[in-house]
Design a protein that fits this description.
Number of strands: 0
Radius of gyration: 21 Å
CATH architecture: Orthogonal Bundle
Largest sheet: none
CATH topology: MetI-like fold
Number of helices: 9
Helix content: over 70%
CATH class: Mainly Alpha
Shape: flat
Distance between the termini: 65 Å
Strand content: under 5%
CATH superfamily: MetI-like
């Protein structure tokens, strides 16, 4: 098998894989942030809906969430007389965004709750609004606590992007299958090995970036006790 031919074909599909990944990362982060705020504040009805969304995202297999997005959304918009506009790429971005948002909410919420209650009380005593308390006191500490979990969620997302081939998105995995079929499935091991290396590189890059943010976070002190000073610094 000529790798000089196969690898460029796989790399040609890489931009779509990255586009789906980055879209799901961004949209999922916003969904997770909104869901986490409502779950923490315990707003009647809305918080229960947020809990239901997170339960759906974490309980239903990702491939089924992609099927729901691809086959269910056209039915939903059809009720309002809107023509079917759902392409495989759009459905992949939507399904993975919903999945990533629900999973990431379960990283953000424990990180928020892990910040000591005294920090909340001190911010309240200074007259901070919830927004001010969150941005100035809680978030700097919660970010450091949640970064490892966030890194794991990104790696899981990269893994699950490979499933978009089942709804017709022409990502790297789908392209690899087309290449194998063209060669009468003679080089399956070689093709999957190249894919394994490619996905490993993406995951290592994601891990390295998160690690950089971990090292730069204000509370990161290897081998030492965490410093609980964000509130004092803000005061």
């Amino acid at each position: 098998m000529d790798l000089s031919i196969m690898i460029p074909e796989l790399l040609a599909a890489l931009p779509l894989t990255l586009a789906i990944t980055f879209t799901a990362m961004g949209a999922g982060f916003l969904l997770a942030l909104i869901a986490t705020v409502f779950r923490v504040r315990r707003v009647p009805v809305v918080s229960q809906l947020a809990d239901l969304y997170v339960s759906y995202a974490r309980s239903v297999p990702v491939v089924l969430q992609l099927f729901v997005a691809f086959y269910g959304l056209p039915i939903l918009v059809g009720i309002f007389g809107v023509d079917d506009f759902v392409s495989p790429n759009f459905a992949a971005m939507l399904g993975l965004s919903l999945y990533h948002g629900g999973y990431l909410s379960e990283v953000m919420r424990p990180a928020y709750l892990a910040v000591e209650r005294g920090q909340h009380d001190a911010a309240d005593s200074l007259g901070y609004t919830f927004r001010q308390k969150l941005l100035r006191v809680i978030a700097p500490q919660a970010v450091h606590i949640g970064l490892p979990g966030y890194g794991n969620s990104i790696i899981y997302l990269i893994h699950n992007v490979a499933l978009v081939m089942y709804i017709g998105a022409a990502d790297v995995m789908a392209t690899a299958h087309l290449v194998m079929e063209r060669d009468y499935n003679q080089y399956q091991f070689e093709t999957y090995l190249v894919l394994a290396v490619l996905y490993s590189i993406l995951c290592v890059i994601a891990w390295a970036i998160v690690r950089i943010f971990e090292r730069r976070s204000g509370k990161y002190v290897p081998g030492a006790k965490t410093v609980r000073a964000p509130l004092m610094a803000s005061v």
